[in-house]
Amino acid sequence: MTARKPTIDDVARDSGVARTTVSRVLNGGPNVRPEVRDRVLASVAALNYRVNPQARSLAGGGSRMLALVLASDLEAEPNSFYASALELGALRECLALGFQLMTRHVPQQSPDRREQVLELMTTQRCQGLILTPPFADDATLIEEIRRQGCHVATISPGGPGRSAADGVGIDDEAGGYDIARHLLELGHRRFAFISGIEGHLSAEQRLDGLKRALRERGLDPAAVTVVRGDFTFRSGSVLAARLFAQPNPPTALVCANDDMAAGALSAAHGRGLDVPGHLSITGFDDTPVSEIVWPPLATVHQPLKDMGGAAVRIIAERLAGTRRGADWRFTVLPHAVVARASAGRAAPIFATASA
Amino acid sequence: MTARKPTIDDVARDSGVARTTVSRVLNGGPNVRPEVRDRVLASVAALNYRVNPQARSLAGGGSRMLALVLASDLEAEPNSFYASALELGALRECLALGFQLMTRHVPQQSPDRREQVLELMTTQRCQGLILTPPFADDATLIEEIRRQGCHVATISPGGPGRSAADGVGIDDEAGGYDIARHLLELGHRRFAFISGIEGHLSAEQRLDGLKRALRERGLDPAAVTVVRGDFTFRSGSVLAARLFAQPNPPTALVCANDDMAAGALSAAHGRGLDVPGHLSITGFDDTPVSEIVWPPLATVHQPLKDMGGAAVRIIAERLAGTRRGADWRFTVLPHAVVARASAGRAAPIFATASA
DNA sequence: GTGAAAGCGCTAACAG
DNA sequence: CTGTTAGCGCTTTCAC
Predict the structure, then answer these.
(1) Which nucleotide shows the minimum CA-to-C1' distance to residue B8?
(2) B98 CB contact with strand D at below 7 Å
(3) Is pLDDT at B2 greater than 80 in this prediction?
(4) What is the pTM (predicted TM-score) of this model?
(5) Which nucleotides of C are covered by protein (CB under 7 A)?
(6) What is the pLDDT of residues B193-234, one digit of tens each?
(7) CB B96 within 8 A of CB B316
(8) CA–CA separation, B129 vs B116, rounded Å?
C-alpha cells in the first residue's frame, strides 16, 4: 500500500558507498571527497530520502527537541500575542536549525509547576528549555534542569535568573524609564502603575525605571499608586476601574503589558473617560493589541520574535559546544518607545478639577 | 555527571521479569498477571522510568507526532487568537493522549505550499495532520497526504474537504444566517460583507447564510456589498475605510472574522463614525479580540479550543483503528450569536441622511 | 502468561 | 578519505 520509506542504506546502496559515508555527507562531516558527496546527494534527491529523526536521536544524535515554557493556564483564554510572538520567533529559528519545538503552558499557580516542567523535559527527552518569566528567575528549577543534562535559555530574566543561565531580553528598567519620560514630557505628574504577577522580576524593573524617571524630575516615587495585576485584559480592566473610582485619580496609567493596558482602556471607555483627554494609558510589549484598540496604545516595543529566535540560538550554541562553562551571558536587545494616541498631553483642567 | 536515564531493561531487571513483559505492562497489553503488573509498575515508579519516545517510535510504535497546519505567514504578525485557540485546544488533547504537536505556519500565497506541508509530514514522520482552511478544502493535498500513510483531520472544511476527510467545525452557513437575523431584527437593511481569502469556503458559507436571511426577509441578496479581505486587522481597516467613503454606505458591516471587524471598527473611529450609533459591525469567531476592542464586538462564537481537541481525537481514533475506511465524518459543533454593543439599532436618521 | 531474539534507522568509535 | 562493527531503547513476532 504505502511505499516503504527509503532508509540510509538505500541511499548507500544507490550511490555505491557505505552507510557511514552517507551519514557523514548528511551531517556535514569532514573527510568526504566532493565527487562522492555529490553522488550521495544525487541519490538522496533521486530516492527522495529524509533522515528519520527518531532513529538519529536514538543513535546518539540527540532528540533535537526544544521546549518553550510559558506561564499561563491551559484552562484559560488562548495565549496572548506575547506568547504567540515568542513562539513564532522560536519556531522559525527551530525550522532553520533543524530543531523541533514543543510549547507548554504551565499554570503558574499550580504547586507542582516545577515538576510539570521537569516532567515535560524528561518525557520528551528535550535537549533545551526556553523559560519565560517567572520560570526564568527560578534558579532552583534552572539548576535542576541543567543537572539532568538539559540546556536552558531564559527570556527576560530579572534577577537570579540572569546569573543562572544564558538569557535574552531588553533592558526593562530602561524601558520603564523611557515610557515614563515620554509621559513626563507630556506634562503628567500623577502616575499609577499596574504591575504583573508576583515573581515576574523584569516587570518589576519596569516600575523601577518609572520611579527613577520621577526621581530625576524631583517627584516622589512613593506617590505612584501601584496595583498588582496578572497580565490579563480582565485584570487590567478591573484594576483600572477601581483606580478611577478613587479620589484624585492619576492622569497617567502605566501598565506592565499591553493586554492590561487594553483592559484599562476598556474600563476608561466604560466610565466615559476620554483617552487621552482625561487620562493617558501606556502598555508594554508593542503586541498587535496595541494597534487593535482605540485609541492605539503608546507602548514600549519589545522585539519578541527576535527574542524567541535568540533563545533557540543560545541553546543551539550550547549544544554545539561553541560555548561551554558557567559564564552565563545575557543578551540585551534594543527596545523603543512607540508613541501613539493613548498617551497625550495632561489636561490641567481635569487634573485641577479632581485635585 | 548526568545520571544515565533508566531504560526498559533496568525496569525489567529490577522487577525480575523480561523486557517484553515490561513493554506489555507499559502499553496495556493483555496477558499479564495482576501481581506482575503491580511489581513492574512499582519498579517504574521507583526508578522514575520514562519510555523513550524516539526508541518506541523507531521500534514500530509510531512517532506519535501530529502537526497543525495553519495558513499564514511566518514573516507576518504573530498569529491571531484564532490560531492560538486551535493550537491550545489541540495541545491539551495531545498532552492527554500522549501525542506531540508541531505547529506549522505555511504562507498561503507561496506556490509550493502543498510541498511545504508534505515536506513537514515526511521529515517529521507525522502520523496525523490537522488542516485548517484553505488547506482543509484541498482534496488533492489530502489525497496525497493519505497516500503517504498519514491521517488527516480537517478544521472547518467548506466544500470538497468535507467529503475527503474527517472534519470538525460549526455550521458556518447557519452562523452567517444567525448573525444576519440579529442585525435584521435591529432594523438594518443595508449590508456589507468583508469576506476572507479566496478558497476559504467556510467563510463563503457565512455569506451564503447572510444572503439567505435577507432573502427570507424579502430583501435582495445581490444588494450586499461584498469585498474580499485576508482575515487580518489591517485588511479590515483598509476595506472598511474604502466602504465608508462610498455613497450610500451600509448600516451593518458583517465581517468574516473578528480581526477584520476590529480593523473596521478602528477605521470607523478614525472617520469619526459612532459605533453602533451610525454603523453596526459584527465579527466572527468570538476570539478575545472581540472583547478587547471598544465597543465590544457582536460576533458568532465558535468553540475553537474544542475544535482543536476534536481534530486530535479524530486522528487518535483513526490511528487506533477504531474507525476505518473512507466513511469520512464531519462533526458539527454548536455555535452561538454573542450580542455585544458593536451591533445596535439601525439609526433611521443616518440612513436617510446618506441615502 | 512469559521470555528470547530480531530488528527499526541511525550515529559513533575504530580500523584500514 | 572510506568502510566495518556495535549498539541506542524499544516493540514485535514467535516460541515455550
Answers:
(1) D9
(2) no
(3) no
(4) 0.91
(5) 1-13
(6) 999 988 899 999 999 999 999 999 999 999 999 999 999 999
(7) no
(8) 13
